Amino acid sequence: MVPDFDPHSSPSEKLRKLVHARLVNLAEASDDRLADAIAAVARVDAKWRVAHPINHCAGNAEALALAFGPLKRALPDLERRDVIFVGGTYQGRHYLAAVGHYCGTMRRDWLGIPATNRPIYLRYGEVYEIDPEGAVVQANLLWDVLDVMRQAGVWPIAQPLGSAEMWPAPVTADGVRFDLSDPSQSDDSITQTIAMHRTLAEFNDITRLNRESLIDMPQKEHWHPKMMWYGPAGIGTTRGLDGFVDGHQLPFRIAFHRPQGTFEEVQAERARNGAGHYIRIGDGPYSVTGGWPSVYAVHAGGGFCGLPPTGKPVFMRVMDFYLHHEGLIRENWVPLDMLDLMMQMGVDALARMREVLRR
């Protein structure tokens, strides 16, 4: 069992369908109906947290002006395509969480990224805290802006070690879940995820950080032989435990020195630095964790995204969506605010892009 997760309390089928329909309508609403569409989704004073460079919006008016309005103007035929839509209750708060892509033809520039006049897929991980009537109280939107830069041909950093392709739907084709799941399965899913997190937290990076040790450490007890790890633009997708270690885990741990100790000690140190999870839920064969920020570390090693170490502390806005299949973690989708992380590493990717375009 995971403390503060209640497998017997989850948003109802009715609320799931209602919120999902409102989110679809928000994506597809015309300019003159956009304000009404966002009002239907969220309380007027809802807190919106959106990936860099949007960051924080205090209320629906700011979310409309800074996030959805510009996106809709750039992609006027926008539509929402969820591949995962799940729910649960953590610390008494009710959540709905999604992975998918906004799709549309990029007719105008967006955040300074030049229009392509071709279809663009904006990858997202989104977590919504809702009230008992289904109105959003807080929204956490990790939009993969860096991947749109890739699609527009204005890539600003070193090529990723993993595959840069679009994230697929779950192999089980059951990611959009309106029906309520078996509470015991939901509990088992998030329990397995936190048990895997424990192995990651307690691994000694100081004395054992090498490829062989990472492959052989207890995380292997939780990952499926055909595991897929879907990272954001800049990191990419890997397959199998060895691919995960080579394509992400080892380079990441070399670059970012994290707190050491027991799982509880690591969690406490993260909390002291303002990092941790605001969501830990299971929904049938799926589980979700996330923090704003979730990860605290010191950027003390080189190589990540081809960048040298800064020696500075960094904080990462991250979500993890897991599919548990055949008793193991089969797939892991990882939205991460890469532009925000890169800013902390001394690189303003959007400014770099603007300078290249100016020249």
TrEMBL record:
Q: Which domain of life is it from?
A: Bacteria
List, alphabetically, the InterPro entries matched: Cyclase_SnoaL-like, NTF2-like_dom_sf
Question: What is this protein called in UniProt?
Answer: Polyketide cyclase
- Species of origin: Bosea eneae
